[in-house]
Amino acid sequence: MDQLGALETLLQEDRVFRPLPGLVMEANINPQELASAYQLAAHDPLAFWENAALELQWFRRWDKVLDDSKAPFYKWFTNARCNIVHNALDRHIKTANKHRLALIWEGEPGDTRKLTYFELYRAVNKMAGALKNLGVVKGDRVVLYMPPLPETIIAMLACAKIGAVHCMVFAGFSGKALKDRLRDAGARCLITADGFYRNGRVVPLKPAVDEILEEQDAVDICVVVRRAGIEVEMHPARDVWYEDIVRHEKPEAMTEVMESDDPLFLLYTSGTTGSPRGIVHSHGGYMVGIHHTLNWVFDIKPTDIFWCTADPGWITGHSYVVYAPLLAGTTTLLYEGHPLYPQADRMWHITAKHGVSILYTTPTTIRMLMRYGNLFPRQHDLTSLRMLGSVGEPINPEAWVWFYQTIGRGECPVMDTWWQTESGQIMISPMPVGLLKPGSVSKPLPGVEADIVDRTGAPVPRDKGGLLVIKKPWPGMMQNVWNDPDAYRAYFEKIPGCYVAGDVARRDEDGYFWMQGRADEVINVAGHRLGTAELESALVAHRAVAEAAVIGIPDKIKGEVAKAFVTLREGVEESDELAKELKEHMKRELGPVAELKSVKFRKDLPKTKSGKILRRLLKAEELGTEPGDISMLEEE
User: Fold this and answer.
1) Which residues of 373-398 are buried (b: 16+ CB within 10 A; e: fewer)?
2) φ and ψ of 113, to 5 deg
3) Are the C-beta atoms of 251 and 126 separated by less than 8 Å?
4) What is the SS3 string spanning 577-631?
5) pLDDT category, 103, cuts 50, 70, 90?
6) Same topology for domains 117-259 and 522-623, yes or no?
7) In the chain, how many H helices and how many E strands?
8) What are the residue boundaries of the AMP-binding enzyme C-terminal domain, all occurrences included (predicted)?
9) Residue pLDDT, tens place only, 213-258
10) pLDDT digits (tens, 9 = 90+) for 511-560
11) Ramachandran angles phi, psi of 543, nearest 5°
């Protein structure tokens, strides 16, 4: 990274989409209010974030909005007392939200469950009481090795309610990944399920847990949710059924009073760039950041059905499946299974069935569904949709336009958001009343000061790529790296005074940001520094290509050359002629500097279980080197 120069810009995207007049008129934040918010945030960012905090309830107000005396260990809303569950559940029970749907859940086989705020509140209280009776106390870590079930959300909220620190481990991870996280977190309690449904089959979970717990006596208690109804072995001294421990608990429980900076959860990074780290988020600043950004970016209305397709095991699931929708008093939807089961219209079926109004998903999912064309979406009534969103990695302009036109009917703006596990909240995003450029994440939100710089911290010229940095702290930011404060400091030491995101980006003449990939995925071809995102976007623009990944491989003459790995759309056959056509297509789209040395067709691209392409795994396969941590590798 220390050799990073300005990245060249090859992709030219000139299409601009304006919001419909009706949407602007009905928006919660109109253009004039948005301009005033930017002015306040630039002039007095602490006043801006204090206003956001005042939209929530606190047991005790803060002495100071931000304590930066021990930077980069920033503390937000110092000496305030709060609990995120009070704002996500307790306060709604005293309002008209009490009988509003909080959660709609659909299982892969088609079974559904719906919980009002009152019903969810009582379920969380029962689980909170059960955890206390099992000996879990404030500050204890509780690991959840859980699929997307209502009990997953209930357990997360119950932990937070009693002051325990939850640590979600994605249910698709291997036993080794679970073991490593149990050890690092020092967990006393583990919550899991017998199994779950995925892609038409039952995936057992409890046997993997038993194998791990036999190797190390890591936890005192293991709570098992009965989902799949499969036979599992229960160890009497350690294992208890979820249904048994909550059955006789009271539906009321005390909400623990927490310091604003008390830990809420640990979440381990996705491992795309190396060994996972336990990112720590706290109650106070985190709830302010996610509540504010959900309301502003997605223009939340009382009647919305909000579907973020992320698994609760990822930061997107934590922030915008569980906590932010409940803080906002809206209805959140959770789906257990695979988006292609039993066929490629499952997402559109769910959207139509439940009247989803906001759909927030990943570029990977969008490109995957694009492979099957427009027939499946046209078979379903998607007119309930009024807003779309993208998250997780850069979205190719062609995928953006397909999403906007085919799914959104040309009426639903696409909120292409940039943020990270470490940031906790959306940082850069369009707003519903703003202009949209396909493939751009638009501009930093009010209160977020982002820049694009070279390795010395100096700003790079417009339309040149550089390191994306955040120059001032923000409420939803991580508080530490668990057991590793030096790893936390490292985020702020590469360029003193800035948080270095590890992504490369450029800013165009209108101030719009364009993500170009990870800083360690830049390709240097004969002195031309190229970002992978632009190369891949050009490939996906070809009619035959569904997904693409580009890596740099060593070359004696040019230093590096680009190699593309491509998956094809449904019905397209691979051939030498097509490979040649794709090479010519790249040159036409981006110029001769973007020459592809070779194209390799694949059925699938290696991805993390959150859907991000693992380019370093492709590179390791190509060069015969060690790939590093692959615990996050998707296995379908």
Assistant:
1) eeebbeeeebebbbbbbbbbbbbbbb
2) -140, 145
3) yes
4) HHHHHHHHHHHHHHCHHHCEEEEEECCCCCEECCCCECHHHHHHHHHCCCCCCCC
5) very high
6) no
7) 20, 32
8) 534-612
9) 887 677 889 999 999 999 999 999 999 999 999 999 999 999 999 9
10) 999 998 777 777 766 556 676 777 888 898 899 999 999 988 887 666 67
11) -60, -25
- CATH T-level fold of 117-259: Rossmann fold (3.40.50)
Residue with tokens 């790939």, as numbered in its chain: 627
CA-closest candidate to residue 297, choices 476, 144, 559, 63: 476
In the numeric block, which tokens belong to residue 247?
């059955």
Whole-angstrom Cα distance, residue 511 to residue 532?
A: 21
Beta bridge partners of 636: none
- The share of the chain scoring above pLDDT 90, in percent, equals 75
Do 483 and 280 meet the contact criterion of CB atoms below 8 Å apart?
Answer: no
Delimit the domains of the chain by residue range. 117-259, 522-623
157: three-class secondary structure by DSSP: helix
Rounded Cα–Cα distance for residues 126 and 219 (Å): 22
CATH code matching the domain that covers 522-623, chosen among 3.30.70.920, 3.40.50.720, 1.10.510.10, 3.30.300.30: 3.30.300.30
Work out whether strand 358-361 and strand 112-116 pair parallel, antiparallel, or are unpaired: unpaired
Determine the pLDDT at residue 534. 73
Q: Which residue type occupies 561?
A: V
Distances (CA, A) of 403 to 76, 373, 408, 536: 37, 11, 6, 18
